[in-house]
């Protein structure tokens, strides 16, 4: 990969086994997706289709 070849990966800086890098990457990605979900729920302007909860209440 280009990023790996150029040393752009975080785990090129921090010495960690491959399994730790994979585990931490999965956890961080899931946290980012969860935070995106929370932001979309908190700011109605970010949600294009409206909240599914609103449709269920109607």
The succession of helices and strands, N to C, reads HHHH
Rounded average pLDDT: 79
Q: Count of DSSP helices?
A: 4
Strand content: under 5%
CA distance, first residue to last residue: 49 Å
- What structural class is derived from the secondary structure elements? mainly alpha
pLDDT < 50 runs, ≥5 residues? none
Helix content: 55-70%
Approximate shape: elongated
What can be said about the biggest beta sheet? none
**What's the gyration radius in Å?**
18 Å
* Strand count: 0
Q: What kind of assembly state do the chains in view correspond to?
A: single chain
Structure description:
The protein has 58 residues and is mostly helical. 67% of the residues lie in helices and 0% in strands. It has 4 helices and no strands. The chain has helices spanning 2-5, 10-13, 18-42, 52-57. The protein is elongated, with a radius of gyration of 18 Å. The chain starts with a helix and ends with a helix.
Summarize the structure.
By secondary structure, the chain is mostly helical. Helices cover 67% and strands 0% of the residues.
